[in-house]
Amino acid sequence: xxxxxxxxxxxxxxxxxxxxxxxxxxxxxxxxxxxxxxxxxxxxxxxxxxxxxxxxxxxxxxxxxxxxxxxxxxxxxxxxxxxxxxxxxxxxxxxxxxxxxxxxxxxxxxxxxxxxxxxxxxxxxxxxxxxxxxxxxxxxxxxxxxxxxxxxxxxxxxxxxxxxxxxxxxxxxxxxxxxxxxxxxxxxxxxxxxxxxxxxxxxxxxxxxxxxxxxxxxxxxxxxxxxxxxxxxxxxxxxxxxxxxxxxxxxxxxxxxxxxxxxxxxxxxxxxxxxxxxxxxxxxxxxxxxxxxxxxxxxxxxxxxxxxxxxxxxxxxxxxxxxxxxxxxxxxxxxxxxxxxxxxxxxxxxxxxxxxxxxxxxxxxxxxxxxxxxxxxxxxxxxxxxxxx
Length: 389
Ligand SMILES: Cc1ncc(COP(=O)(O)O)c(C=O)c1O
Description:
This protein is an alpha/beta fold.
């Protein structure tokens, strides 16, 4: 065998077929309304950029500690205490190249071949792939629109086996936008009490919540604090997707040391001037700008939801967080709920790009990003309505 078995288990994302088609239609000169991207359309706030420029000009361009400079880890600890009622010390933090890298490190540090990873479905595309790369088995916990795409304590209980190693929670969720309440998280936490199951809490959309407050899983009890690996980053909160900054926090010293070793033998530290910029991004002074972006997202969510609800054949829940609508297309004419055919035809006939639900493990739904202007959203909905006429 020329190639590693592990690498051959990784699958190409279902979203690639749609982006390739969108690109080729654009080349032909067709107007494309792209509602498929998972990143804020805002520019990175000026104060953050200036910190990076200052760091470069001052020659802050050498290797740093693998897990990040002390000042940054201390800024992360202050943020976790301020926003999430979580008390961590800098030695319990690892800064990585985006939340995705933090997830990759965390999976790699806890999984052995044959372990089971519980993944609520629909799920963010990379969770099952990273589990498989670590020779673990993804076990999907299907959720329903009626239950607002959330797993129940009973469902979690039924899924536990002696092989269960890890549960992934992503609230607010990509792709559904659903947000677990404090009580719902507590009830899930109770099921795990007494077990050896780790939880990864992917909190990357924390700053984009529109209704009840956001709760960090690890803040709910000492038991949850000890078993939870909290993951967050700056991509979505401060419009920094391209900077590549994410971090994880854990109380487990062995885990932190293992991840430090893994990162120390692969990517080492994230780039030095992004670290300086991240200190600014995490400071309380940025909260006003973050709130302004959140209000824009809320306005777009409300607009997109009302537009979408008025189109015959589509149904959806109002998302409580993130910047996606997860739209039920099962009653739409022509496609019988086949999300890939729906997205291909919508792109070819009307030039609107959405992501098929199959990419997230469920057919019969499509994901629309509302991280774009009201004008673009309006035009997109006009075209979708025409498509379904
Ligand atoms: C649920 C979820 N987790 C993690 C990530 C990764 O974000 P980052 O840019 O920090 O790697 C994304 C990005 O789309 C996401 O949607």
